[in-house]
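Question (not urgent): is this output format expected?
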Amino acid sequence: MRKKLHKKVFKALIEGRKFQEIRDMFNYYNMVDLALMVEDCSLDQVLMLFKILKREISAEMFTYLSYTKQEELINAFTSLEIKGMLENLYSDDIVDFLEELPSNLVKKILQSATEDQRSEINLLLSYPEDSAGYMMTTDFVELKLSDTVKRAIARIKTQGKVAETISNCYIVNENRTLVGSIRLREILFADEDEMISEIMDTDVISVVTSDDREEVANVFKKYDFSVLPVVNDEKKLIGIITADDIIDVLLEETTEDIQKIAAIIPMEGSYTETNILEMAKSRVSWLIILMVSATFTGLIIQGYEQTLTLIPALAASMPMIMSTAGNAGSQSSIMVIRGISVDNMSIKDFWLVIWKELKIGLVIGLVLFVVNVLRLMIFTPEVGLTTDLVISTTVFITILMANITGGLLPLIALIFKQDPAAMASPLITTIVDALALIVYFRLAMYFLSI
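Got this back:
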């Protein structure tokens, strides 16, 4: 059983400059865990690690460090050290940290890169940030249609030294058009003289460089791939995308959706790294909009002031009705937004959503109706049964309206080509609150003879 990695032991080895033991540790423990330890080291200590470790190990460690630590290191590295590190990094990893660096450090890196590296980096940077082309790596194994298995194995041995993965190989014709794919295990178990064209899979699923990264993520989820080829508009093989890149995309997209649902303008960077002004700016816009839109709720209440004066008990239930309706609408909205993201729901599911949310609303509404009548009878017996029924009926009706409104708003956002999470979630509470109050006061005026 592997011994646990202790921060004190790690720090003691570095401070004691126990070079051989440090090298052994980096050969023994997982690089992700080690990178977390390195984060707490001083710049001089990290620079020492880069000097004593093998280049391929220090380059891998670099990819797991925070952008802040990466920036510090690039600032301190010599041109020769940058060049050595770039030789052991995959092109997509290089682009990942380049996009976070200031322009002067990007220039420093590009000046230290070889001509081939600069070409690859500039190619990837030329694609839109949310595209498949930007995510891909150009380090992959490419086989020829005319190869035998023996020749293919020789190519894998040559190209595999710098390829990000060799588990899947892709076959191109003389024009570099993608025509097939094959797994390494299929090559290893085939006869040496057999042609690759005879054993390859011709039904190749690929994405185009211009495809949005969410579309790419959906392809990975649908087909359960670990790697996916990327082609240009002419179907020529350009690069590959691996599963680890998609995990990062899914994490970013999920974070972005959560921020939008919470009425926050999406921002890059973690909670701890983002400064106060950026956070405030990302939150204040929607808060202003929601505060102003709440004017409509206030106007409705003002319009029924006489009703509230005659029966003060009605005012006590207003927060509960508005809160319940808003929460119900948010629940429906989040489920439909998730359905759009995962199940590819669209505006064609309009009536399905209405029918489903109506049935859900009936079940939930009836349960809340009964619970609320009992609650009012126990805690406010002085109010009277008629008023209890008016309040509980309002809850029932507003649950129905909130469910349908919350379910339809994300679909309506698709019609206007807006992000469902960004448009629907912040507006639901305001819309549902207004509808709930109108129903509440109209029922009170009718049944209580006001």
